[in-house]
Amino acid sequence: MKKRQTWFTEYQTDSLSLGLRVDSILRAEKTPFQDLLVAETETYGRLLALDGAVQTTDRDEFVYHEMITHVPLFMLEAPKKVAVIGGGDGGAIREILKHPTVEEAHLVEIDEKVVDAARVFFPAISVALSEPKAHVHYTDGIEWVREARDFDVIIVDSTDPVGPAEGLFQAEFYQSIARALTPGGIMVAQSESPFLHEALIRQMHHGMKTAFSDVRMYLAAIPTYPSGLWSFLMASNQSVAPASRCRSQKIDTRYWTPDIQTAAFVLPKFVEDILG
Ligand code: AG3
Predict the structure, then answer these.
(1) Domain spans of the chain, in order of start
(2) Which atom of ligand 1 is nearest to the CA of 49?
(3) How far is the CA of 48 from the centre of ligand 1 (A)?
(4) How would DSSP label each residue in 162-179?
(5) Looking at the domain that runs over 61-275, which CATH code has it been given?
(6) Residues with CB under 6 A from ligand 1
(7) In the predicted model, is pLDDT for residue 133 greater than 70?
(8) Beta strands in 191-228, from DSSP E residues, in sequence order
(9) Each residue of 48-72: pLDDT tens digit?
(10) Do the domains spanning 6-57 and 61-275 agree at the CATH topology level?
């Protein structure tokens, strides 16, 4: 008898989808904020989806988590206080805590159920959440940032700009992040795909320019995200360059290298054109 096939499909746009064959569904629940799904896929290992959108898979999570953290952290000689808004799976915190100067890594996640699923089903991603330097806050990132001060790096590891994450893509939020950073502090936000989300990227770029003097984009290849080409916007009120420790400090990574640190900012022409 032929084995019945189950597929997970993300409808990325009205006319585009990604399908992954699934061995089993490990968790499917409605949290107070969103639909959460954990499935075992054949090609990419365990998958976490929120409202039908892939957030992370065991096989390609390293690209996103290394790139959203090490790129800003290696711009500074000695980052001490770092916050992640969203990112309830803990992958960004794991990478941040590889930097020995970091004293506090705060995770600000609105949905406790995401952290719970990560602890149960993604032990290798959530591993650092119980370290003493990790502080987990279950609250709205927008409100939390209003009170936050003296952060060296703030990372916006959000879902797509629908539902709970919408406000994380607005100019007011970036202004409030600017107030929460040290004078040379840096913010980074995941900014979706240059192939599919041109208007959103422009909106984010303009929004960040209202709060920061230096806004730059960098890219990484993430196969399970829409189009596979993903972007990040980095902003600061001082012009930043890779710190010298970027080449000397040994850090265990699989995507990030000192050369990637600079190469990721080299943009294809069509991406430069989006930013204008
Ligand atoms: N943040 C999600 C990036 C957006 C993916 N979008 C999509 N699949 N439509 C990732 C959280 C990982 N810590």
Answers:
(1) 6-57, 61-275
(2) 8
(3) 9
(4) SGGGGGGGSHHHHHHHHH
(5) 3.40.50.150
(6) 10, 12, 53-56, 64, 87, 89, 91, 157, 159-160, 190, 225-226
(7) yes
(8) 214-221
(9) 999 999 999 999 999 999 999 999 9
(10) no
Interhelix angle for 198-209 vs 171-180, to 10°? 40
Q: Report the distance separating Cα 70 and Cα 258, nearest Å.
A: 10
Joined together, the tokens standing for residue 204 give 């984010």
User: 5 falls in which pLDDT band (50, 70, 90)?
Assistant: confident
Q: Which atom of ligand 1 is nearest to the CA of 190?
A: 3
Which of 3.40.1280.10, 2.60.40.650, 2.30.140.10, 2.30.30.40 is the CATH number of 6-57?
A: 2.30.140.10
C-alpha span between 185 and 82 (Å, rounded): 10
- Tokens representing 67 are 């790139």
- The structure tokens 């003493």 sit at 132
